[in-house]
Write a structure and sequence with these properties.
Number of helices: 3
Strand content: 35-45%
Largest sheet: 6 strands, antiparallel
Order of helices and strands: EEEHEEEHEEEEHEEEE
Shape: elongated
Strand order of the largest sheet: 7-8-9-10-4-11
Oligomer: single chain
Structural class: alpha+beta
Number of strands: 14
Length: 208
C-alpha cells in the first residue's frame, strides 16, 4: 500500500485515522465487524441517487426482473495512484526508529479523494471493454443487450445492483466480475441504502 520515506518539506501530509464499524443487515443484525484505515479528505465519485435506485426497482418490477446485490471487497484499494500522495503513519502503528518518516502511497486508501475516482475509472473501463453501454444521464447505470434480453447494472460506489431478463446473464455477469475483482456476492437484493426490499411474484415492495 505504501513505503516509508523521510517527510518531504514541500508537500502536505494527510492525517489518517482508524474507523471501526459494525455492518448490519435489513433486520439490524450484525453481519460483519470492519476496521478500516481512512484519510481525512472529502471523497468524490459518481454515485447513484436514491431516485435512480427507486426508478431501477420500478423498472425491474415492470419487466419482472429479479435484482441481485454484490459488494466490491476493498474497492478503493484496487488501483494505483497517478499522483504523489503522502499520509502520516497509521495511529498506534508508527515506526519509532522512523519517527520523521511518512507513508508515500502506492495504492489508494479509503477516504482519499483520488480513491473512488480511480476505482470508478477502472470499473468503467472494464465494463465498456466487456460490451456494456453507459447511461447518458446517469453515469452509474450500465446496460448490455444479448439478443432480445437485457442486463442492467447500477453502481453505488462499492455496491452493485444488477438484474436481467434472463437469469443466465446474471450468472455470467457475476462470474465476469469475480474474475476481475474481489467480490462479495450478497445475493438477492433485500436491503440497500436504508431501503428494505422484498421481491415477490406479485411485484416488489419497498419499506423505509
Amino acid at each position: 500500500m505504501w513505503h516509508l520515506i523521510p517527510q518531504p518539506e514541500d508537500r502536505s501530509i494527510i492525517s489518517t485515522k482508524w474507523v471501526f464499524r459494525n455492518k448490519l443487515d435489513e433486520f439490524g443484525t450484525i453481519t460483519r465487524n470492519k476496521a478500516r484505515l481512512v484519510v481525512y479528505e472529502e471523497t468524490f465519485a459518481p454515485v447513484a441517487k436514491i431516485e435512480a435506485i427507486r426508478i431501477l426497482i420500478a423498472f425491474a418490477a415492470h419487466m419482472e426482473i429479479k435484482l441481485y446485490h454484490m459488494d466490491v471487497t476493498s474497492a478503493f484499494l484496487n488501483e494505483h495512484l497517478k499522483e504523489e500522495v503522502y499520509v502520516r503513519q497509521p495511529p498506534s502503528f508508527e515506526r519509532k526508529e522512523f519517527s520523521n518518516h511518512v507513508c508515500k502511497l502506492d495504492k489508494a486508501l479509503y477516504g482519499l479523494k483520488q480513491a473512488p475516482r480511480a476505482w470508478y475509472e477502472r470499473l468503467l473501463k472494464f465494463l465498456l471493454k466487456n460490451g456494456f453501454g453507459r447511461g447518458k444521464v446517469d453515469n452509474t447505470l450500465f446496460l448490455k443487450s444479448k439478443g432480445e434480453h437485457l442486463l442492467i447494472v447500477q453502481v453505488y460506489v462499492d455496491g452493485i445492483i444488477f438484474g436481467a431478463t434472463h437469469n443466465d446473464l446474471c450468472n455470467e455477469f457475476s462470474k465476469m466480475m469475480r474474475s476481475e475483482f474481489e467480490m462479495s456476492m450478497i445475493g438477492e437484493l433485500n436491503f440497500f441504502l436504508g431501503l428494505q426490499i422484498k421481491q415477490t411474484l406479485n411485484g416488489i415492495m419497498i419499506h423505509q
